[in-house]
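Intended use. Records like the one below are meant for learning the mapping from a protein sequence to its folded structure. Do not use them to infer anything beyond what is encoded.
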Amino acid sequence: MDFELFEKMARHADSEDGVCARFYDRAVKTGKIDPSGFPVFEDVCFCEIRIKDNTTEVFDQPADENKIKRFPAEYARYRLGKKQRAKGTPLEQVAFLTQAETEALKYRGIFTVEALAGLADDKAESLNVSREKDLARRFCQAAKEQMSLAQYSQKLEAAEAEITRLKQRLAGAPVVKGGKRP
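Structure written out for the chain above:
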């Protein structure tokens, strides 16, 4: 995990006082149609802006350069999350974390189970996520020990081929006295 980037984000946690911004991807219909006749969607980076003490208004628009420059720490957190998710299992996809724990980890710059499992013990302790780290480590170990479906299929095919080969060998073996094969 890129802790230097996370520490930089933490130092500049509030780009503006009284304003909270969140960058995220939203699927947006492009207006194009694929060969099957279905609409084509693409991920577009959006910026949601909320103002302190104003619970009724939320500004939610596609992110542009001005919003990225205005909220650099929030944008850096968004980029870090995208980078981690490209290489690992998103925290939202595991049952051993509550939604609150998931959000707390994301706030700390941890977005995947693998990033959580890979934390140094002292770092996990300082972030107060030692229990979550242990669960993630055990999850990753169990996943590593599980055979993928493709690997299982290959083993099954090899075993079936061996059985067929042995049956053919037995079928061609001569029968000796007493009805037994050598």
